[in-house]
Amino acid sequence: MPDDSCDLFVIGAGSGGVRAARMAAQRGARVVVAEAAALGGTCVNVGCIPKKLYSYAAHFADDFRDAAGFGWHLERPRFDWKVLKANRAGEIARLNGIYQNLLATAGVKIVTGWAQLLDAGTVQVQTAQEKQVFTARHILVAAGGRPSVPVFPGSEHVVTSDSMFDLDPFPQRLLVVGGGYIACEFASIFNGLGAKVVQLYRGGQVLRGFDEEVRSFIAHEVRKHGVDLRTGMDVERIDKTGGGLAVTLNDGSCLVADTVLYATGRVPNVAGLGLEAAGVSQGKHGAIVVDEGYQTSIPSVHALGDVTARLQLTPVALGEAMVLVDRLFGAGRRKMGYDFVPTAVFTHPNIGTVGYSESEARKLFGDVKIYRAEFKALKHTLSGSSERTLMKLVVEAASDRVVGLHMVGADAGEVVQGFAVAMKAGATKAVFDSTVGIHPTAAEEFVTMRETVVA
After folding, report:
1. Could you tell me the CA-to-CA distances from 87 to 50, 165, 258, 325, 416 in Å, in that order?
2. How far apart are CA 254 and CA 238, in angstroms?
C-alpha cells in the first residue's frame, strides 16, 4: 500500500480508539491513528484515572480522623495541592507513554493532529506542519465526548471538569453546578481535600437514572460529610468581583466562590469532524447513529464510545472496539451486551450498582421482591464516624433472578464488580442465599439478606 493508504483509519486515541487500532493491527491490518491531544483520551488524562487518584487523596482526610478511634495519635496533617498535582501529572505522563508504546509495538502509525472526513474513504489531518490526506478502507470515529456548558450571563467565568486537576490556586470556596456523577464526585473530592463546597442541582434529587433509594441515601451521606448540597436550585448569573465570583441564584440569594465548576453533562465530540460532508447520520447533540455492529449510515464509516452517546463508560468503549475489530478483520462472532453493565460513582461514600433500579424492574418485570440492609460498617464502630452503608437487591419474583444490585458504602465498586459476574450469568436469589459469605465484611450482606422489604 502507499504510505497514505490504510485498512483502518482511527480518529481519536482514547480507550476505544486505541483498543480498536491495536487489535486490528495485531490481526494484520494496516492502521493509522490521529489524535490532536494526549494519548489515552478523556479517561486517562482528565477523567477516570486522575479523578480516582484525587478521590484516594481526599479519603485520607477521613482516614486521619478515623485513626483516633483505633488508638493512633497524629499531628494535624497538612495537605499540599502542588504535590498532588505534580505526582498525578507524572503518573499520567507514564500512562501516555504506555499507550504510545502499545500502538507502536503493534505497528500502528500515529499522526498528531486534528482529523476530519473528506468523504467516505478519505481523511485529512491538520498537523503542526502540514495537511496530510489518507485513504482508508474503513474509518472509525472514536473522538469521545466533551463537557457542555449552557450560555448565561457570566458563563465565561466557569470551568469544566477538564480543568479541575490543575487549578491554581486551590479553591477554598468551590461551587459545583450539576447533579450527575461527575458533579457529585468532584463535590466529594474537593470537600475531602479541604474546600468549602456548595453543590447546586436544579432537579429534585441528584444522580438521575440511579435507584431512588440510592439517590436519597447518598444525598444524606454527602451532606453529613460536609457538602452543602442544595436541590431545586440554579444559577442566574455570575459576576467577577475583587472578592471572588459572585453567583446569583434563582431564588435571589447570592454566594461567593473562588471557582465555579459546571458539570451539567457531556456531549459527543463531533464538531469539525466533517461528518455532515461525508453524509454520516447524527442524532441528538450530534451523536453518531450506528447499528449493532457500530456501522454508521455510510458503510465504510464506523463509530463507538462516547460519540455514539450510548453508555459513556470506558469499559463499554473497549468492549465495542473488540466487537468492531472482530467484525471487520475477524470471524464476526463477538457480541456486546448492554444489560447488567456495572458502574461506580466515586462519591464519599462510594456507589456501586449493576442491573435495574427498583422502579425500572417494576415496570419491566411487574412483580419484584426487594431486599435491603442499612448499617454502620464495622470500622465505624470504633472510628466515631456516622457514615452508614446501604445494600439492596432487586429480584424478579417469577424467576427468582437477581436483576438489580446496589450499594452505597466503602469500596462499593470493588464489591459490585464480582457480583456483576454472577448477575450476568443469571444468578437467582437462591444461589445468593446458598453462597457462603466472607466474615466479617460488608459484602457478605448480599448473601445473607433473607427478609423482603414491605412496599
Report:
1. 10, 11, 24, 36, 29
2. 9
Residue 112 has a CB neighbour count (10 Å cut-off) of 15
- 425-344-212-251 Cα dihedral, nearest 10 degrees: -160
Domain that holds residue 396: 343-447
Over residues 357-381, the pLDDT tens digits come to 999 999 999 999 999 999 999 999 9
Residue of 220, 348, 380, 439 marked catalytic: 439
Domain end point (choices 230, 263, 296): 263
Q: Tell me how far apart the alpha carbons of residues 175 and 36 are, in angstroms, rounded to a whole number.
A: 31
The mean pLDDT of 109-132, rounded to a whole number, is: 96
Do 261 and 138 meet the contact criterion of CB atoms below 8 Å apart? no
Q: Could you tell me if 245 and 310 lie in one domain?
A: no
Q: 408-439 as b/e, with b when 16 or more CB fall inside 10 Å?
A: bbbebbebbeebbebbeeebebeebeeeeeee
1 pLDDT higher than 60: no
Query: Do residue 14 and residue 129 come from a single domain?
Result: yes
- CATH number of the domain where residue 298 is located: 3.50.50.60
d(Cα 399, Cα 75) in Å, to the nearest integer? 56
> Is 363 found in the same domain as 423?
yes
Are 11 and 143 within 8 A, CB to CB?
Answer: yes
Asked if 215 and 207 count as a contact pair (C-beta separation under 8 A), the reply is yes
Q: Which three cell numbers stand for residue 282?
A: 447524527
Q: How confident is the model at residue 455 (pLDDT cuts 50, 70, 90)?
A: low
> Averaged over 70-80, what is the pLDDT?
95
Quick check: is 358 in a domain? yes
The stretch 12-30 carries a mean pLDDT of: 98
Per-residue confidence (pLDDT) for residue 365, from 0 to 100: 97
Question: Side by side, which strands form the sheet with 244-249?
Answer: 235-241, 244-249, 254-257
Provide the pLDDT for residue 4.
87
Please tell me the total count of domains within the chain: 3
Known active-site residue 73: no
The residue from 286, 302, 329 where one domain ends is 329
In angstroms, how far apart are the furthest CA atoms of the chain?
70
Judge whether 355 and 403 are in contact, CB under 8 Å.
yes
User: 437: which residues sit within 8 A by CB, 6+ positions away?
Assistant: 443, 444, 445, 447, 448
Please answer whether residues 171 and 159 qualify as being in contact, where contact means their C-beta atoms are separated by less than 8 angstroms: no
Q: What is the pLDDT of residues 210-244, one digit of tens each?
A: 999 999 999 999 999 999 999 999 999 999 999 99
Q: Domain check: are 272 and 258 in the same one?
A: no
**Residue 21, domain member (yes or no):** yes
CATH of the domain at 353: 3.30.390.30
Can you tell me which residue has the cell 438521575?
A: 208
